[in-house]
Design goal:
It is built from no helices and 13 strands. With 244 residues, it is mainly beta. 30% of the residues are buried.
């Protein structure tokens, strides 16, 4: 008998879950190009964004594309692979923000357990290098993560603050944790752009996830040191779990 215990990594960013994760209720990595696929992936489903889809190398304000490298959206963007581990030329969502602040992503998540802690998160990249032509007036992305009832009531939110431009591309995870009440089994998750468009405010999004968050658990053996040879596995093994 082989006993395998797997624990997800603990995020280090504010507003995110500090416990152990379930498998995602919903996950979006936008797929992958692979070795022979198209440079641009398919658009989001109707209702998931208010932005215009553009499958080409000159994505304008208020538009987005799905592609495997930000430079396919605009040549001045960082050249970088998507954030999803083990993807082969994986896609990401590259956004050239609208001139007016507003919503650019929405997804309804259903089948939730009541009275449960959940996390809504995504990995974000400022695709403009810090030596871009916008100079000191470059507009920085600033994203508001929202969780709303299906009737539109705000349940929880968190804001990224200004996502800085960097010399080399840096994916950073942001999000918000919240607890469902006794009657909540579905919610809408929203990403809202707080900053105006113009020169700057360009970003990539990848690995959007919605998942349950459990307690921090420490597992210890109460049957010795827990090291056994393959041909001498005990019939039973005692474990003790301490939850905080």
């Amino acid at each position: 008998m082989t006993l395998l215990l797997v624990f997800a990594g603990i995020p280090v960013f504010a507003q995110l879950c500090q416990g152990n994760f379930s498998e995602p209720v919903f996950a979006e990595d936008f797929g992958q190009r692979g070795n022979t696929g198209a440079t641009y992936g398919p658009p989001l489903a109707p209702g998931e964004t208010t932005y215009n889809y553009f499958a080409g190398p000159n994505v304008q304000d208020g538009s987005y594309t799905i592609t495997d490298n930000p430079v396919n959206a605009l040549s001045v963007f960082h050249s970088v692979q998507d954030r999803t581990p083990d993807d082969i030329n994986g896609y990401m969502m590259v956004v050239n923000s609208d001139f007016d602040p507003g919503e650019f992503y929405r997804k309804r998540v259903t089948g939730l357990c009541e009275n449960t802690l959940f996390e809504f998160s995504a990995w974000v990249l400022n695709v403009l290098p810090d030596n871009n032509n916008c100079g000191p007036n470059s507009i920085l992305p600033n994203i508001r993560f929202e969780v709303r009832s299906t009737a539109g009531a705000l349940i929880a939110f968190a804001e990224t603050g200004n996502v800085q431009e960097t010399v080399s591309p840096q994916w950073v995870q942001y999000g918000v944790a919240f607890t469902t009440d006794a009657s909540t089994t579905e919610v809408d998750v929203v990403m809202f752009n707080n900053a105006p468009g113009g020169c700057g405010n360009d970003l990539a999004i990848d690995d959007i996830e919605f998942r349950a968050c459990g307690d921090v658990a420490e597992i210890a053996s109460i049957s010795g040191n827990g090291e056994f040879c393959d041909d001498a596995v005990p019939a039973s093994l005692g474990l003790e779990a301490n939850l905080s």
